Amino acid sequence: MKRLISTTRQLTFIVIIVFLFVACQKLVDYVVKKVKGDTEYRVCTIQQVTVTDPSSPAQKTHYTFWYNQLGNPVRVKNDAVGTGNPNMAFKYDKNNRLIELLRDYNNGFYETWHKYIYNQKNQIVRDTQYVFGEIGPSGPLPVENEFTLITYKYDSENRIIKNTYSFYSDGTLDFQFTQDYSYDVKGNRTDRSYDTKLSLLRTNKIWMFIARDYSLNNPFIATSYNEHKLPLSFSAEGLGGDLVPITGNFNVDYNCGPVPKAED
Q: For the chain, which residues make up each domain, given as ranges?
C-alpha cells in the first residue's frame, strides 16, 4: 500500500513539473523566441495611452481602456473626441467573439459602425461598415443604402493578408479596391521597418485585427521598454488602423503580471 502511494505521488509530481515547464515555456516564447501568427501575450494589458502633440507639449490626449472578465476590450474612451478620433465600444456574442465595433462620439452619433460575420474557423471574413450615422434608443442605426462591405483573407497563421472594400451607394456598387499584406521570416509585415522588441498589439488579438498588423515587433524604435519588452515611450503616427489614430509622442501604461521565465 505504501509503495502504491509513493508511486502515485511520484507520478503526480512528474505531471506537475511537466505542466509547469510547458506553461512557462509557452509564455517565455513571447519574450525569447520568434512567435508567429496571431498568438497573444495576455500577461499584460494596455490600460492607458497618452499622446502628446510634439508642436505643443502641453496638449495631451488620453485614451483609457476597459476590459471584460475574459480580458477582451469593451470600451476605449479619449478626452479629445472629434472627427477622425472617436471613442470605441466592443460587443461580443455568447462565445466571446467580437460581433460589433462602434466608434462613437459623445453626442448620439457615430463615425463608423462595424458588424462582423465569422466562418467555421472563427475568423472574421465579412464586415459591414456604416459611416456617420445616428445612435437610437436601442443602439446604432444603419445609414440607409449607404455602406461598405469588407471581406478578409487569411494565411495559414490566422493573419489577415488581404482586404477587399466594396462601397455601396443607393444599394448599388460604386467602386471597389483591395489591400494586400505580407510577412517576412521574422513575422513582421514587409512594408515597414521594425524594432526587435515585443509588439504592444500582441497583448490582444483585437488590437492586431484593428491595426491589420500581426507583426511580432513594433514599427518604431521606442525610447524605453518595460521588463516585458513592451514599448513605453515612442513617437508614432498612431497605433495602426483605428486604434489610437493620431500622431504624436506616446506613453503607454500597462497592467502586467510577473515576467514569465523558462524555469521557476
A: 34-256
